[in-house]
Amino acid sequence: MSIDQSNAAKVAKLARIKVEDDALPALASEFNTILGFIEQLNEVDVEGVEPMVSVEPMRLKRREDVVTDGNQQDKVLANAPDAREGFFAVPKVVE
Amino acid sequence: MSDLNKLGLAEARDALRAGDVTSVELTESCLKAIDDADALNAFVHKTPEIALERAKAADERIKAGDAPSMCGLPIGIKDLFCTKGVPSQAASKILEGFKPEYESTVSQQLADSGAVMLGKLNMDEFAMGSSNETSVYGNAVSPWRRGNDDAQLTPGGSSGGSASAVAADLCLAATGTDTGGSIRQPAAFVGITGIKPTYGRCSRWGIVAFASSLDQAGPMTKNVRDAAIMLETMCGHDPKDSTSTELAVPNFEAMLTGDIKGKKIGIPKEYRMDGMPAEIERLWAEGAEMLKAAGAEIVDISLPHTKYALPAYYVIAPAEASSNLARYDGVRYGRRAQLAQGDGITEMYEKTRAEGFGHEVQRRVMIGTYVLSAGFYDAYYNRARKVRTLIKKDFEDVFAAGIDAILTPATPSASFGLGEMTEADPVQMYLNDVFTVTVNLAGLPGISVPAGLDQQGLPLGLQLIGRPWEEGDLLNTAYALESAAGFVAKPGKWW
After folding, report:
1. Which among A12, A38, A91 has the least Cβ separation from residue B343?
2. pLDDT, tens digit, for every residue of B22-38?
3. Molecular function (GO) terms listed (chain A) (predicted)?
4. Which of A7, A24, A39, A41 to mutate to test the interface with B (most CBs of B within 10 A)?
């Protein structure tokens, strides 16, 4: 399988990373190098093998569905690049 | 006592308890060594005020008696650990200015035990790299050199700052994290000890996530005893990490008897790679001889899927990273890009992530996005997870056959020069982790022990891989290997 420039642009879009058009050929080429390396996995017979979910067979712990913390709006917002009136501020989302 | 910064944890602990030194003296000695070592670029955020405050408190505790082992011992913390009120950037531009409002469980446990944080340590951005060359802070530099050649060498990665700082005696020990070899490879490159415990031993809470099913924290120390002491403090169940295991943490140090009579040590034939330097092959054989001389039985074993570990890793780790790093969106923390007039939220995401993530991180996030995308999920991601099952089964089979530990080289080469791999394709850099990555995929404990020098005078390490949850036994085997290898070389001070 090989990635061309338009695939590379699509992946960049999905990953929400802006890639300039002139950087796409090099990016596509790097992807192909890495994917070429990954292709080795096709040599392995995985018929009937379960895909690993967790390295230790464990049942995730459960707890009561209750509030365990809260009331720390200032702390939550302390590191925001733009916080106003107790909210995270972002550019306009809906026209 | 002079040169207190050169002590290990056990020696310093004993000196503190005997009243021969104070934690403040130890801490001041390290702070001075750190200030003299800016050329190594190991400490990227220094916290002398916090250090001295904690050192004073530790001295009080020690005076009162009943202080835990780590009490009063100055250490460095990898920048991947969130530390309250102290910059925690994962060496990334995108987390510029981020000061967590909370403390990671592991660094909290160390602080509770009285350990003294000297500052934050350099690393590869988001722990993605094997040479500490992807850091926003610039390269960390190894204290080691090739003879009289003044070319700067890599301390390895991703825990490169931790490795450099411990090897150069800027601190008594440091925390590291290991997703594919990021504790063991740098430890081997600088001639120190590094252990990655079983997946689930250390809480991942508050450690910036890279690949959650592989990440584990561990200590990087001057010797095996120190690793046992520090690991015990770092381990333990944490309700805030749902994958942390509810198992009692043994007294690892008490298990260091050096007696490995009758232990079965496996030598996996698949780790004998084409093009491996003869001196690494020789060191490996010598390591096996040392363990045999100590009474262990050496057994040839096979781990047939070894070859597929790196390709499986380079599907699974980027896939998990692409998901974990989705949170860096320029909204809740860190750095947001300057926006142009009329830019909407999508442009904000795209520009923020393009400016904030370095090249290697972008590449891995995009590879991860690709292997998880519709139409490729089965072909790449599910296939890699099935191969991971087979890799784990390889280990289960040899352990079921009675093998107690597995001996391998830690790395396929000694440290290389900073910049020497710039022109190589990314896969060449990934090969650094060829001997370590299997251990993360199988969730096993692995330790790197310095065992010799190559012909350029650079350290080489051997890796021991243990049974799950048997870090104590693994540390004891490593202790026997360390005693036999007698590695004492230190880098000459040039910085």
Report:
1. A91
2. 999 999 999 999 999 99
3. asparaginyl-tRNA synthase (glutamine-hydrolyzing) activity; ATP binding; glutaminyl-tRNA synthase (glutamine-hydrolyzing) activity; transferase activity
4. A41
Question: Could you write out the DSSP letters of every residue in B129-185?
Answer: -SSS-S-TT-----S--STT----B---SSSHHHHHHHHTTSSSEEEEEESSSTTHH
User: How do residues A30-86 score in pLDDT, each as one tens digit?
Assistant: 999 999 999 999 999 999 999 999 898 877 778 899 998 899 999 999 999 999 999
Q: Which two tokens stand for residue A92?
A: 């306009």
Closest CA to B40 of B254, B186, B249: B186
Pairwise CA distance, residues B237 & B249, whole Å: 9
Reported ipTM: 0.95
Where exactly are the structural domains of chain A?
A: 5-42
Residues 22-81 of chain A with CB under 8 A from chain B are: 27, 30-31, 33-35, 37-44, 46, 49-56, 58, 60-61, 63, 72, 75-76, 78-81
Report the C-alpha gap between B419 and B139 in whole angstroms. 10
| Residue B375: alpha-carbon gap to chain centroid | 35
Domain count, chain B: 1
Q: What letter does residue B74 receive in the DSSP assignment?
A: E
For tokens 């204290």, the residue is: B143
Q: Which of A12, A52, A75 faces B392 most closely, judged by CB atoms?
A: A52
